[in-house]
Design goal:
The chain is α/β, with parallel strands linked by helices. The chain has 2 domains: 100 residues, Sandwich (Immunoglobulin-like); 344 residues, Glycosidases (TIM Barrel, Alpha-Beta Barrel). The protein is 28% helix and 29% strand. It is built from 12 helices and 21 strands. It has a 10-stranded mixed sheet. An 8-stranded parallel β-barrel has the order 5-6-7-8-9-10-11-12, surrounded by 4 helices. A hairpin with a 4-residue loop joins strand 16 and strand 17. Helix 7 packs parallel to helix 9. The longest helix is centred in the middle third of the chain and has 18 residues.
């Protein structure tokens, strides 16, 4: 009989990624069954990651070298979350120290384009992540290293209808081509620094008028920008290998928006998929509809965090379960990548140039040169440490909705099943594949990952 490894996190009991080795045995006429069906296959998964915001990089830059190494190992090392992806912002975002761009104001010819600003803190942090990842021993299955998604929050002020980077506004029509050229310059500049940008989103949250960096696009405007400017420009400049993702906003509008943007066939040929956020609830069904209607497209979860404006008083268990519930639901709905928001923040949930504070899986006190791994960090790890790049989601069923479940097969044949109990009661289960398995119990508010080979 084959061995099986059960990894458990129980925050109340102080158990984090605690491993137990068991033997699979024959399971017939069982109760409390969770079935695993590897012959039923769904999407192929690309990986997990987080965002290298200026806020995260600024905090990181103030930590000592030993602490920097520990933090990078915690995210991109083998003993940590084993991330293999990252997100970067083009120009400033809310989690920056202030508004900035890479050109002088009014430079419509982009003659002054220069990413020196990012060379101070953001690119050094990325370089450390790449180094940690390359030394992790995970390169055997990921020879290309860390892969990045890039997103803009706002064009330069002079290109916008409201004349500023904040408070929404739109990209002026006369600057559509200039803005597409700006994308090209940024991608090339970052690639010259060894940053492998594989995907981009057209605009972060294109329906949100925010007090911070923001820009509004209707579905028609986003589609036209992709069809007539960004897509052809990337193609002409030899950057067709960069996948264009649209929407990059909350899930409740994901199906309607995507349908509208790709309704035009000329637009659709340039689109690789859709990116989504979690801030307005589950809406897993919308992702399922996108995958069913457009099976050739991918969906990335590109951003989520615990906002202090809404959940400041929630406990660490609730925050961690928010992550696990959403990741599990997104995976089962068909996403092929999952990217958290800020990799690091300070003890106040910043820095943030408009006071839009939130939590991160690792919070730092840069003055004391200390950091804390929050419970959410360990819950994320139940997915990111074990579901590897190239894994395929497989069929699962459960006897009760009190247990959340998802399952994958890694490229080497290893099965990975994640079980989540958000209830106040212990939940029994019999995990079974083709008549063999184990019996177990999920304590209240715990998460388990179960790994085994056929």
């Amino acid at each position: 009989m084959s061995r099986i490894t059960v990894i458990t996190t129980d925050g109340k009991q102080g158990r984090f990624w605690e491993e137990q080795k068991l033997e699979r045995r024959e399971m017939t006429d069982c109760m409390h069954v969770v079935n695993v069906c590897p012959d039923v296959e769904y999407q192929t998964f690309r990986g997990f990651g987080g965002a290298f915001t200026e806020a995260a990089a600024h905090i990181y830059g103030q930590m000592s070298e030993p602490k920097k190494q520990e933090i990078m190992e915690a995210y991109y090392g083998k003993s940590g979350l084993r991330y293999n992806m990252g997100r970067i912002h083009m120009n400033s975002c809310d989690f920056a120290l202030g508004n900035y761009t890479y050109i002088e104001e009014g430079d419509a010819e982009l003659k002054t384009f220069d990413i020196s600003h990012d060379k101070a803190e953001i690119l050094p942090m990325i370089a450390d992540a790449k180094k940690t990842h390359s030394l992790s021993g995970m390169q055997e299955t990921d020879k290309a290293g860390i892969k990045f998604l890039m997103s803009p929050w706002s064009p330069p002020a002079f290109m916008k209808t409201n004349g500023e980077m904040n408070h929404g506004g739109k990209l002026k029509r006369e600057y559509y081509q200039t803005w597409a050229d700006y994308f090209v310059k940024f991608i090339r500049a970052y690639r010259s620094e060894g940053v492998d940008i594989r995907w981009l989103t057209v605009q972060n949250e294109p329906m949100a008028v925010q007090t911070w960096d923001s820009c509004v696009y209707t579905s028609a405007e986003e589609g036209m920008f992709v069809r007539d400017y960004l897509g052809p420009t990337l193609e002409r400049e030899g950057l067709s290998d960069v996948g264009i993702f649209v929407w990059d906003h909350n899930k409740e509008e994901a199906y309607q928006r995507f349908r509208e943007v790709v309704a035009d066939e000329e637009t659709r040929k340039y689109v690789a998929g859709e990116a989504v956020h979690w801030y307005t609830g589950d809406h897993f069904e919308t992702l399922e509809m996108v995958r069913r209607k457009y099976p050739e497209m991918e969906i990335f979860f590109s951003e989520g965090c615990v906002e202090y404006s809404r959940f400041a008083d929630s406990g660490e268990v609730q925050k961690a379960e928010m992550y696990a519930h959403d990741i599990l639901g997104n995976l089962n709905a068909g996403i092929s990548a999952s990217l958290d928001w800020n990799l690091l923040l300070d003890s106040e949930g910043g820095p943030n140039h408009v006071g839009n504070f939130c939590a991160a899986p690792i919070m730092c006190d840069e003055k004391a040169d200390t950091y804390e791994k929050r419970l959410s960090y360990y819950y994320i790890g139940h997915f990111s440490r074990y579901i590897r790049e190239g894994a395929v989601r497989i069929g699962t069923s459960r006897y009760t909705d009190a247990i959340g479940v998802t399952g994958f097969v890694n490229p080497d044949g290893e099965r990975v099943v994640v079980l989540l109990n958000q209830s106040e009661k212990e939940q029994e289960y019999t995990l079974r594949e083709t008549g063999k398995g184990i019996c177990g119990k999920l304590a209240p508010h715990t998460i388990e990952t179960i790994c085994y080979y056929d």
